[in-house]
């Protein structure tokens, strides 16, 4: 430094230092995000784009996130591995897709007969859920954050009416996550098909039934034109998507950009929840008018009781094998026990008395 001062003078050195500091402050960080969703999968893909836009605006252009839909990277169910391996820095997907890699990831999307969306968000941010999610994903060199909720998902489209447990046996159905395990226990042949292939699979009789989301997204997929029996939900009362981030990449970001990124994730997730709610209401009104042959059904008490029994048996079996899964499920159960009393007093009794 003394030699530099001697050659250039104090004023010149100060100006160079100031310039270097300004350049450091204005350094642009670029991230790549892979999504499980195709470019037309509104509002899922919109959430990733909204996140990117907010991050860029809040950082004044210092944090840029390129969003690649599954149409580009061609691996909708490969997002976990691509982010873990560093091929992508981030991913927008759903945690329960990774049950084959780590069974502990299952509960962070939704569990059958579990928390509703408001209850689940409260658990994530005030009941220890977010900390447990980081505990599960840390061993994969990943961070995971709530990435948008669909609310209660419908129980699926079926080609034929399901009246008894016997009607389920041998049925081929696309249904992921823990609910798929439950259905398999009841005799269904379960498969997990990427979103972009669902309509073709149903149309070609590769599957007999499928669940996707709800009216907001189902209407554009056209499932109701092939399978007119539309069953109400039980399996995903609060389907939370996720944003996964490569931990090494996250740690290289300046602290302010880390905060901007996590804030953009949280806001875009909530925006998806309310956007999807409005889309559901609008789409269902249209579906009822344009497709009067859609038959909304609820599974019988016999079937629901069998589902609950299978669900509890599977929970017990899996919890016995994984102490960490048991810790997550116990945490959700404890929070639901507390929160559900308020849900009953508020939403349930209000609706019960005003429908």
UniProtKB/TrEMBL annotation:
Q: Is the keyword ATP-binding in the record?
A: no
Q: Which InterPro entries match?
A: DctP_fam, SBP_TakP-like, TRAP_DctP_sf
* Signal sequence region: 1-24
One Pfam family assigned to this protein is DctP
User: Which keywords are on file for this protein?
Assistant: Signal
Q: Which domain of life is it from?
A: Bacteria
Keyword S-adenosyl-L-methionine appears in the UniProt entry: no
Q: What is this protein called?
A: TRAP transporter substrate-binding protein DctP
């Amino acid at each position: 430094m003394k030699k530099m001062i001697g050659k250039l003078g104090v004023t010149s050195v100060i100006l160079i230092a100031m310039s270097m500091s300004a350049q450091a402050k204005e350094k642009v960080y670029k991230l790549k995000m892979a999504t499980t969703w195709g470019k037309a999968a509104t509002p899922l893909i919109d959430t990733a784009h909204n996140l990117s836009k907010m991050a860029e605006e809040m950082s004044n252009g210092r944090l840029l996130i390129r969003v690649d839909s599954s149409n580009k990277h061609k691996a909708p169910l490969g997002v976990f591995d691509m982010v873990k391996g560093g091929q992508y820095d981030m991913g927008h997907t759903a945690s329960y897709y990774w049950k084959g890699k780590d069974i502990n990831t299952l509960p962070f999307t939704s569990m059958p007969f579990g928390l509703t969306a408001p209850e689940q968000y409260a658990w994530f941010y005030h009941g220890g859920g977010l900390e447990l999610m980081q505990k599960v994903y840390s061993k994969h060199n990943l961070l995971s954050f709530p990435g948008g909720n669909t609310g209660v998902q419908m129980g699926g489209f079926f080609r034929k009416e399901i009246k008894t447990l016997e009607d389920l046996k041998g049925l081929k159905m696309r249904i992921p996550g823990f609910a798929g395990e439950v259905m398999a226990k009841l005799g269904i042949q379960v498969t997990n098909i990427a979103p972009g292939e669902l309509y073709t699979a149903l149309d070609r009789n590769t599957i007999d039934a499928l669940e996707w989301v709800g009216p907001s997204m189902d209407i554009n997929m056209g499932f109701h034109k092939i399978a007119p029996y539309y069953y109400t939900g039980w399996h995903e009362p609060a389907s939370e998507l996720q944003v996964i981030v490569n931990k090494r990449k996250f740690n290289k970001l300046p602290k302010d950009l880390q905060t901007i990124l996590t804030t953009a994730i949280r806001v875009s997730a909530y925006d998806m929840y309310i956007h999807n709610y409005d889309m559901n209401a609008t789409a269902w009104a249209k579906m009822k008018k344009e497709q009067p042959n859609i038959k909304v059904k609820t599974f019988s008490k016999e079937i629901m009781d069998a589902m609950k029994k299978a669900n509890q048996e599977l929970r017990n079996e899996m919890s016995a094998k994984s102490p960490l899964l048991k810790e997550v499920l116990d945490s959700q159960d404890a929070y639901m026990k507390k929160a559900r009393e308020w849900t009953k007093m508020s939403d349930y009794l209000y609706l019960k008395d005003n429908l």
